[in-house]
Amino acid sequence: MPQRDVINIGLLGFGVVGSGALQILERERESLANAAGCRLEVKRVADIDWQRPRPIHVPPEKRTTDALEVVRDPEISIVIEAIGGVKPALDYVLEAIANGKSVVTSNKEMMAKEGRQVMEAAAAKGVDICFEGAVGGGIPIIRPLKESLAGAGLRRVLGIVNGTTNYILTQMQQHGREFGDALAEAQQKGYAEPDPTSDVEGFDAAYKLAILASIAFNSRVNLESVYHEGITRIGAADMAYAQELGYVIKLLAIGADTEDGLELRVHPTLVPRDHPLASVADVFNAVFIEGDAVGEVMFYGRGAGSLPTGSAVVGDVVDVARNIRNGATGRVPCTCFEQKRAKNIEEVVGKYYLRLQVADRPGVLASIASVFGEESVSIASVVQKKTTGDRAEIVWITHDVKEHAMQKSLQRIRSLPVVVEVSNLIRVLAA
Amino acid sequence: MPQRDVINIGLLGFGVVGSGALQILERERESLANAAGCRLEVKRVADIDWQRPRPIHVPPEKRTTDALEVVRDPEISIVIEAIGGVKPALDYVLEAIANGKSVVTSNKEMMAKEGRQVMEAAAAKGVDICFEGAVGGGIPIIRPLKESLAGAGLRRVLGIVNGTTNYILTQMQQHGREFGDALAEAQQKGYAEPDPTSDVEGFDAAYKLAILASIAFNSRVNLESVYHEGITRIGAADMAYAQELGYVIKLLAIGADTEDGLELRVHPTLVPRDHPLASVADVFNAVFIEGDAVGEVMFYGRGAGSLPTGSAVVGDVVDVARNIRNGATGRVPCTCFEQKRAKNIEEVVGKYYLRLQVADRPGVLASIASVFGEESVSIASVVQKKTTGDRAEIVWITHDVKEHAMQKSLQRIRSLPVVVEVSNLIRVLAA
Hints:
The structure is a homodimer. By secondary structure, chain A is α/β, with parallel strands linked by helices. Chain A folds into three domains: 6-138 and 306-325, NAD(P)-binding Rossmann-like Domain (Rossmann fold, 3-Layer(aba) Sandwich); 144-302, Dihydrodipicolinate Reductase, domain 2 (2-Layer Sandwich); 345-428, Alpha-Beta Plaits (2-Layer Sandwich), CATH 3.30.70.260. Chain A contains 14 helices and 17 strands. Chain A has helices at residues 16-27, 29-36, 67-71, 89-98, 108-125, 142-148, 163-175, 179-188, 197-200, 203-216, 236-244, 306-325, 364-374, 403-414; strands at residues 6-12, 39-46, 63-64, 76-81, 102-105, 129-130, 154-160, 227-228, 247-258, 261-272, 284-291, 295-302, 349-359, 379-386, 391-398, 401-402, 419-428. In chain A, the strands form two sheets. In chain A, strands 7, 8, 9, 10, 11, 12, 13, 14, 15, 16 and 17 form an eleven-stranded mixed sheet that branches. A six-stranded parallel sheet of chain A has the order 3-2-1-4-5-6, with helices on both faces. In chain A, strand 9 (247-258) and strand 10 (261-272) form a beta hairpin. In chain A, helix 4 (89-98) runs parallel beside helix 5 (108-125) and helix 5 (108-125) runs parallel beside helix 10. Chain A is elongated, with a radius of gyration of 24 Å. Chains A and B meet through helix 1, helix 2, helix 6, strand 12 and helix 12 of A and helix 1, helix 2, helix 6, strand 12 and helix 12 of B. Strand 12 (295-302) of chain A pairs antiparallel with strand 12 (295-302) of chain B, so a sheet runs across the interface.
């Protein structure tokens, strides 16, 4: 076992996550040395812009603008990748691995899109690749899924994994705001990017679901297999109806391991008010897991931010350091041992919430109900309300039905002369 | 690196946890072999009673009534201890370790009382000792605390770690039951033992807090330093007042790392209704963590039961197997690197709920309030209600005050002629 007094770390990217990790490495220096069994030294920090103000100082001799200097430094054993995005982060990560370094990253996009390549490269070199910070910020999720829950018999993973959209939906729910207003406020508070597409359209959550499901179900999930739909079409009216019917609306990432394949989808979802995920508010994240053996388990906390995500990165660094000191890097392999097919969204069975604007005259309810009947869509509840003038609004909640049948019904309903508008179709969380 | 096709496991104790672990090892055989990198075979099972019906069959040639046969078997590398209690479990665990075997246990009492001895023995032999199942059943808590949250800067740990008392309190809260009735129902449902002392008096929660705090704060906690108080004196009236004041009552295990020492206490606690722990109901457990870097993190799930706890045990077994295959047992050392003093409960600062029966006449409120004033106990709110005849009930909530000052006030209040009875003093969770 190689005994070492110090393990040198290289940091790529000195933004939100990188500076958070560095702060923690500095201020918890002693306890981390105890935990790792040796000193953890950040030897080099690479960033293209050294002019921006940061919460922590890096001595000039440690700074570089060339990431290759870091990934090629023979004295560095662990590289923290905190650049984000696929390119050029992936190139640096692969070169670091090729040079025998273990890598810690919080890069969800890279791991979701290029996880296979990164994992295979690490396995070939016998080094560690850790990415706890890629999902749920500082909340321990990846490692518990991969290690503690190895015997849990995981069947379903439900996640509120995007803080921006959860903040927006919480604002809409608690204050009756419309989406646009809530988004503007989130942007003002720094919870949403100037271009909010990745968050509000569900891309970010889809990355995280691909990662979570790959680990939970031991089968590599291709990002293309993840259906995703954002929250931009959720209105204050939907929120109000959901509330009236005993639900809240959340952007859920849902992965399920079923007999005929994996279900992988991100979409707004009506969650029963007494479900533990229903009370996960504001920017908080949570991952709710169901397993044959373990029953229900939930992980909850701050899903983003400099120090929370930095905490996850540092936890990974300590783990890698322990492996290095024990000559045991690569001890937890990629766990995608199986190849499971992914279902198409059309095959997925679930309940639906449907809000329609219709002409307010006799027989309208019956004509829509008869379409549902003909398509074998069974109705759990229906609420009809007079709105303005000669219009009425009808909200339906169905029993379980295949997405395909629901979409077919919707197409037919849309073409009924009495139907003025299909306002929204939202999926309902199944028990 | 020693490559092995199979790792043999010995199981001590074939009760609730042991049979759960065995069931999972059998039914998840293939995926566990993938995860561990080799087959995991249960070679011997020791129990003193082979007559009881079990949910899983053990072939006669694997059975023994002599635990020593297991811990001395040279072909066995991992011993699962599922006997419970300190003696004789501790002796077998120490002998297994002395024989170079790694040990997985869910024995909270043994780890709380004899953890130091067990950890030191394992360190001396370079083997693993894992005990994820000792706290929170199948919920991953120990390993995340020790590994993922190594850089989290943990300051406080709040746990609902006893399912029996949480079930009883939930029944009292939701149905207005008295403690005795709720206990009887819990016993009938098998959630409480015929002798419920360990649960309802807080011993079980104290064991778990000693373990959690030792890991969270990197300092060995002696069980004697943990103040504990049970739930037997909580009445339906307290539940109703708590509700009226915006709280629920939970048995909390509270550990805090403060400037002048560790706070370690288990007692009924008024938890604000909007705190994530407030909605942890029935037999569910949760551990809520606050850290400088990580912010707030909560782990939630089934805190007991054959398969959930078995799942935790099996997760540990896979981890140990990975270490064995990599020649890296002992890679995560005991993390009690520091020696922090434990505060006495008298030193602890907090808020209090006090319910009194008093004579219903003018000046009573003032005479009690003046005692509080003289003892510098500041009052946050007070509710007075007429009860029967010439009696009234007063409920006080204080601001922060040292336990010592609160107890002194209470002593003086008790001796006031107008005070008929001190019905209850319950601590309130501080933000």
